[in-house]
Model the fold of this input.
Amino acid sequence: MTPAQRTMPFVTRVLKSPVFAAVIFLAFFALAWALRAGLIQKDTHQIQANLANEAHALANNLEREFSIQAGALGRMAARMNNNVYPSKSVWQADAHTYLNDFGIYQAIEWIDKDFIIRWLEPVTENQTVIGYNVAFNEQRRRALERSAETGQPDISGIIDLRQGPKGIVTYHPVGQGSENNGFIAGVFKMQVLAKQLLTARVIDQFQVEILQRGEPSYALNTSSDISAVFRESVPVNLPSLDWHLALSPTKDWVENQRSQWPSITFVSVILMGVLASLTTLLGQMIFKRTNSLLRTRLELERQVDERVAVQVDLERLASTDTLTGLANRRFFMEDLSHTLNIADRQMRQVALVMIDLDRFQVLNDTLGHQFGDELLIKVSERLNCLSSETILVAYSGGDEFMICQQQMDDIDDVIHLIGEIKQCFAEPFEAMGQVHQITATMGVSVYPQSGQDADTLLRNADIALYRAKDQGRNTYQFYTEGMQEKEMMRLELDKDLSEALANDEFVLYYQPQLNLDTGEINNVEALIRWQHPTRGLLSPVEFIPLAEESGRITEIGRWVVLAACRQLARWKGTACGHLRIAVNLSGRELEDATLVDHVRDALTTENIAPHMLELELTEEIFIQNIAQNRSQLSQLHQLGTRLAIDDFGVGYSSLGYLRDFPVDQLKIDRSFITNVTERHDDAVITRAVINLAHNLGIQVVAEGVETEDQLHFLQAHRCNLAQGYLISRPIPGAELEKAIREGALFTGQPATSEL
Done:
């Protein structure tokens, strides 16, 4: 028997022995124990990794939410920096929209450059913070000053809010550096922030701590049974903040995270444990993949919703004026074209009304563009009340509005609409705390009589509007045949006007003023005429309104002052050497900051004494911008020129400016002089003006004197000077010099009324 044959039975016995079974069991037991310990250790690492993922997800969500909120505040600060908010109420409305869109805000504030809270939305439950200085310590002041200088947003960190418990304030500067105009601030309460950022699962299963500069600053779920083994801290990347987010799980969460497979593997067969572990791992992978796909789907749906919202906003912006909220010009013209197509098929009439606000440009220039924008909004609100299924109201731009009446049976329908438009302007408008009475001038064109398409209809309504403006303010005009030809002639005249100065086509005529005390001529008024190369001599009424519309009136006014000074220089040593010349100034000239310098230069260049030049302004111009006009007129008065008020007594009742302005002379409007001997009221007003002026030490000139009875009345009531065709019509300088030399001005015979 060989040794191998002898050992076989031994091996068989051993294999069959219970000891071998025990050894096998112990081997499997040892292997199972080792596997169990390994699986437990693996579970521990997985729990820590899951905790880290939760912490990073919370930190990323916090960073993303703050980025969204900061971006929103930044857009609001940009709009405020661009003066989009004409008033507090508009700002509050926009802030209210932000509060609705972003539920995380407790409040939105505007803080001025001195760090004082001025505006707040909502005011309810937050009244106590209005007027509060947010730079409540040196650290906060330095942080806010740095933010204002760099233009970067600043976050306060967790502080005790004045309107409640702990919270965070995000400040976004309005403008940068020296252009800074304060901050737009968003206030978050910590409990509101937690509700927005943390799900119920996170709040129930974790203790969340915010560490500020390494120190605990705020904690949630402090009462739960927290595991002392696991804790994860991750940094939060926020501007100007040193934050870490610490996440500690509850014991229940840890237990729920632990796998049951280590225990099953310890009891079960190794192979079944391995297979079960592989099955579990595979299930976990499928679950994670499913969750990833679900998150991707939700993100795609969110992006689709955002794109749809953006498309809706773009469509709304494309058809709506952002300032007034009315339909814009583009949408109005498209709708008008569509309306005309329908009207053509149904054989209906359509009316187009162009509306121009009277004196809006003057108010806008003198009171500021913010006032003008607020006034346009108030006008739009009233006009929008006329909107209906058949009436479309739109804002054309500048100071013009358009209204389309899409269905009308006869002209009475348009007249009724015009009456409703006038009613919109019946009450004064209040803007920026000031009340002004605004009127409107309108031009009307009717389809199909006034045009067959939208562009023609609009052009003809515009022509009718200009014709109405020529007739005066607060009126309307329908387009009629022949208007377009007149408008073309007007445009040609406007074109020629641009070359008139360069070609030296303007001349001055002079109308004498008779001194009623001495019977002498010591003053004359310079009146401009245009010697047009093809149309002959044109009076001011034919081209001065065009000059004012185009802005050339300032250049023409400069020419008149210089031409008057040159005439005074030529008259030296002649029979007209003692004459003082009065020239008219327009409102635009008075707004020119270089007016005083120009007058001074003209007097100096021609070596003319300042008192020989008199500057006349209408009463309306005097009171349009009292503060600026007082400064300009005071400088002219100090220069030595005389100042006169023309057209006195027409349309104004406040006489306080006579006390405030350095006025030397009043000119009673010709409307009072024409019937002064026939109408008792005109006589009373004329006497009152003369007495008022004399009591203030001001001379009085009566315009439009054409009869000896009028002259005798003025002499009897101590009027100082008289001007009109009774004395002389306006004549060139050479003729005036000859008439004074020959004494031909004192015949007492009325002159002809032609210019």
The longest helix spans residues 18-81.
